[in-house]
Structures are given as C-alpha cells and as structure tokens.
C-alpha cells in the first residue's frame, strides 16, 4: 500500500509499504479522509516530539475492513472516526481521570503509524462509529473538534457571555461555532485574513478585528466593558499569548490552546495575573471528548464543508506539510 512517511526531521516521502494487519484487539481501517493539522507541520520541523520514521496523520475517518482476534465492538463495514491518543490506563494521571496527561501516552500518527496511508491498524477502543451515510470528510473533523470541546469545557462559557478567539484557522472557526452553541452573546474573532473574518461572521461571530489594523486589546476591552469573559488562544504564537491575557477581563478565563514550538518562552507579568485573577487554563488533547465530537459531527449542526479549502491525494502530502500554509488555506483534506 501507499503511505506518506516522515523519514527524518525535514524529510517526508511517499512509500510503498506492507499493508498492516489487524492484531489482537485491533481493527483495520481503510482510510477515506484524513486532515492535515498544524501539528503535522510542527512534527515535520522537529518542533513536536514524534517517533521517526512514522506515517503521520492523526485526524482520519474510514471503513472497518477487517477485525483482529478478540475484537468485540466491530464486525466490519462500519464507518468510524479514530481517536489517536492512546493512554496506558494505569499511571497516576490516568487514575486521576486525566488520560491526556498520561505518562506513557502513545498516539496514532505521532508515535505509531497513522492515517496518511491507504490503511491503518488501530486499537478497537480508539474507534467510534459514525452514521453510514456521513461524508467521510466530515468524519475527519472529529479529532480536532474533540480537542476544541476540551478547550470549551475549560473555558466555562456562560450564556450571554463574551468570548474572544485569537486565530482564524480551522480551530478558530470551529471555536466560533462551539461558542455560539454554548450560548455566548458576544463572539469576537481576531485574525489578519479578511476572508476568514467574513466567514467567521457567517458562522456565528458577532464581531471580528484585524490585529494589524487596530489595537485589538483596546477594541475588545471597549466592546466588552473591560475585557472578555473568556479568551481562547488558537494561533500558537507569542504575540497572541500576550495580547490574549491582556484582553481577558478581571476574573476571566484565558484558555491556551494553540501549539507553540517546544522550548519557546514567552514573558509574562505575574503581578498582572495576580491582581486581575486571570485564570490561565491550558487545554491539551481530547480527554473523554471524542465520542461527543463524533456525535456532534453526525448531528450536522456544524458548518464543515466551508472549512475545507483543498482536497489532495497521498502523493501531495509531503509537499503540503513541508510548505507554509497557502494563502487562504483553512483545512486540507487527504483522500487516500
């Protein structure tokens, strides 16, 4: 079969490899759609820990083609979405019901072969059934959506409250829709790209700002009478970390979601955090949210087609990941 493999930091190529088999407790998934994530680019650059060599692709959906010994939940033919994050279940973090912080965390498409391939073998417990008629491209959104739901849980958005979202990529645009579903009264998206600002307004944002055209901290403070109740950082750059904290109201919640390169340091002012009681809430991965994400995708309440800007084959994956996102790119979907 064909698989797009990360061979070393900065080197990725399409290979012909042996088709995997479903081992004990595993299912073999024929991959129908897989999303390219910003984390894939971080792994390509060596900015996020991963096994090497490895087939990337941690956001994917497909059909169960075969089941291994001792599998009890699947018989074959089911459309499934895959939760890539595999916790050990026995370490202190797992016993505290924090599987995303597992000391032995493994991940499909990160530490073991993933979905940028024609087939992937995954533990049956990582797969969730989707309706048979669902567009597989929609199913591939389940993993990023699951991570967004964890951030929304951390945010504790109140009905009628104000939410500012920094970053207008696919995550920011999913957050806009989730904030609307949570009942936020004021939803602000901050991004440099005008088309994304326009799309955000269509998806539920009440206001958008261009950070290059105005003082967004002042704009948000003025609009929300002192700062947003919740600020969600989705860009993963130092500037949005600093401005995000500054535009959070006293006693508000700042949710850190965007992935920065490992080792990057950002200066903060502890005195300001103290006297303003801004709650800094990192949201990492998707503990206990993948099933909710799958159900939300299946419900059809989210606008997903408008987030897909390009569909490619396996032969283009390496070039796309090695390059900076193209102008206007929101989500690239791989169709093996």
Overview features:
18 strands, 336 residues, Rossmann fold, alpha/beta, globular, 2 domains, single chain, Quinone Oxidoreductase, Chain A, domain 1, 7-stranded mixed β-sheet, 6-stranded parallel β-sheet
Q: What does this protein structure show overall?
A:
α4 crosses α5 (170-181) and α4 (142-155) crosses α10. The strands form four sheets. Strands 3, 5, 6, 9, 10, 17 and 18 form a seven-stranded mixed sheet that branches. The chain is 27% helix and 27% strand. The model has no long low-confidence stretch (mean pLDDT 97). The radius of gyration is 20 Å and the shape is globular. α6 links the parallel β12 (186-190) and β13. The protein contains eleven helices and 18 strands. The protein has helices at 38-45, 92-95, 136-139, 142-155, 170-181, 194-203, 216-223, 238-246, 270-276, 290-299, 317-322, and strands at residues 2-8, 11-16, 26-35, 54-55, 59-67, 79-82, 85-86, 106-107, 119-123, 127-130, 162-166, 186-190, 207-209, 228-233, 248-256, 279-282, 308-312, 331-334. The longest helix has 14 residues, at 142-155. The protein is α/β, with parallel strands linked by helices and 336 residues long. It has two domains: 2-141 and 304-334, Medium-chain alcohol dehydrogenases, catalytic domain (Quinone Oxidoreductase, Chain A, domain 1); 148-282, Rossmann fold, CATH 3.40.50.720.
């Amino acid at each position: 079969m064909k698989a797009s493999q990360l061979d070393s930091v900065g080197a990725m190529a399409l290979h012909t490899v042996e088709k995997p088999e479903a081992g004990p407790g595993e299912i073999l998934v024929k991959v129908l759609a897989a999303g390219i994530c910003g984390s894939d680019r971080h792994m390509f650059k060596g900015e996020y820990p991963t096994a090497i060599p490895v087939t990337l692709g941690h956001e994917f959906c497909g059909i169960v083609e075969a089941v291994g010994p001792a599998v009890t939940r699947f018989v074959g033919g089911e459309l499934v979405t895959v939760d890539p994050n595999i916790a050990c279940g026995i370490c202190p973090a797992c016993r505290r019901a924090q599987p995303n912080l597992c000391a032995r965390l493994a991940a499909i498409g990160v530490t073991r072969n993933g979905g940028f391939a024609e087939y992937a073998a995954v533990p049956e417990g990582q797969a969730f059934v989707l309706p048979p008629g669902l567009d597989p491209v929609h199913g591939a959104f389940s993993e990023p959506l699951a991570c967004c739901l964890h951030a929304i849980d951390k945010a504790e958005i109140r009905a009628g409250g104000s939410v500012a979202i920094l970053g207008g990529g696919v995550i920011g645009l999913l957050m806009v829709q989730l904030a609307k579903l949570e009942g936020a009264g004021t939803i602000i998206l901050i991004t440099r790209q005008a088309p994304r600002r326009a799309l955000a307004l269509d998806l539920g944002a009440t206001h958008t700002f261009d950070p290059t055209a105005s003082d967004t901290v002042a704009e948000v403070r003025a609009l929300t009478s002192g700062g947003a109740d919740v600020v969600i950082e989705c860009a993963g750059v130092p500037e949005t970390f600093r401005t995000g904290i500054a535009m959070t109201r006293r006693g508000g919640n700042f949710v850190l979601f965007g992935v920065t390169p490992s080792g990057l340091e950002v200066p903060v002012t502890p005195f300001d955090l103290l006297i303003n009681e801004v709650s800094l809430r990192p949201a990492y991965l998707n503990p206990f949210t993948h099933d909710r994400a799958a159900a939300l995708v299946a419900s059809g309440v989210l606008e997903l087609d408008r987030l897909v800007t390009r569909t490619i084959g396996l032969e283009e994956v390496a070039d796309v990941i090695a390059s900076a996102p193209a102008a206007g790119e929101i989500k690239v979907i791989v169709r093996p």
